[in-house]
């Protein structure tokens, strides 16, 4: 196998990218001297993926199917993958978000053996009706656990306000009603539609031989016959909305959502990160105002999410004066859209984004998790570094106007 090899003098490592015969990719970052290695299988499917056309047949899935599938993927016909990881001294887990599902493990020994368990798990599932009810009860408890979490509620209220009542943006675990519509047959259909070769990629960071890892993945990946599958993406009516929930709370949470009317490529992702760092980061005028006026003691938690047919930025904050915090956040964005962002602030924001990215390379887990975000757009952390350094000011201003305009904003406040 041949690899595309990239280097970055500030990261102190290399990225080996291998193309698999299944259509997926494998990103391997050797970290020599690393005591604990980390690996992940990244599946290009999340909770927002609820429909597909397979060989001309349109299939609709209940909300929460991606998350339910994640739970059941650890099951095997004899035993379960979690027990196999444990025997090898590896810690394994998984998560589902709106756009992807990630299965991962970490270990100090038996890395190649644990990697093989991971590969077998994602390519050779076993869905049994016998254990569906047990798993359903576990997921019911998860749903109940998040029911009273203000940050969780604010996030999904923001999405509901931003994208309307689309089922694609219901809570990741689904609802009590929807998970009772899921059977072993549902999971098998979902797997066949979305766990295709091109949708399964890998990220590895450990003290390992990259070629040996790539060969293990290539040899144990399952090549399926080609089927024509079309993933459905509905159109959304975007406009400014405000969701204000009145439940009492010790610390109200607000979430501002910006629907980005652009493709989620590496340039736009870097651009959005620079803009939000300039306007809402720790060194921003907004942050200084919040502290001076005693409105918001906590910095905003800014994240980006992108999947099939959507791309948005979320800015979450916690404040007893949430409405005032939101007002000032809007003001800073509107002012920047009209007047632009001065060069000194942009340079500072670029530097902060750069330093944050470089700091990731100190830790194998951080490297894998951050690279997993970029897998599905066929990009990598070094390309992100180069993009931050070279992005043009004119393009940042264009994105500020196009992606962060008033027509694309939604707000949710919980706990007032």
What would a concise description of this structure say?
The chain has 416 residues and is an alpha+beta fold.
Mean pLDDT: 91
Q: Number of DSSP helices?
A: 15
Helical residues, percent: 40-55%
**What is the beta-strand fraction?**
15-25%
Which geometry do the CA atoms define?
globular
Terminal Cα span: 58 Å
Across the major sheet, the strand order is 1-2-3-9-4-8-7
Low-confidence stretches: none
> What oligomerization state is this entry in?
single chain
Can you walk through the features of this model?
- Helix content is 42%, strand content 22%.
- With 416 residues, the chain is an alpha+beta fold.
- A seven-stranded mixed sheet has the order 1-2-3-9-4-8-7, sandwiched between helices. Strands 11-15-12-14-13 form a five-stranded mixed sheet. A three-stranded antiparallel sheet has the order 6-5-10, with no helix packed on it.
- A hairpin with a 5-residue loop joins strand 2 and strand 3.
- The protein is globular, with a radius of gyration of 22 Å.
- The model has no long low-confidence stretch (mean pLDDT 91).
Brief descriptors of the model:
416 residues, alpha+beta, 5-stranded mixed sheet
Secondary structure topology:
Layout: E1 3-8, E2 13-19, E3 25-30, E4 37-43, E5 51-54, E6 57-60, H1 65-72, H2 81-87, E7 91-96, E8 101-107, H3 111-123, H4 132-146, H5 150-163, H6 176-179, H7 184-194, E9 200-206, H8 210-220, E10 229-231, E11 241-244, E12 253-259, H9 266-280, H10 285-292, E13 301-307, E14 310-318, H11 322-339, H12 343-360, H13 364-375, H14 381-390, H15 393-403, E15 409-414
Parallel strand pairs: 3-9, 11-15
Antiparallel strand pairs: 1-2, 2-3, 4-8, 4-9, 5-6, 5-10, 7-8, 12-14, 12-15, 13-14
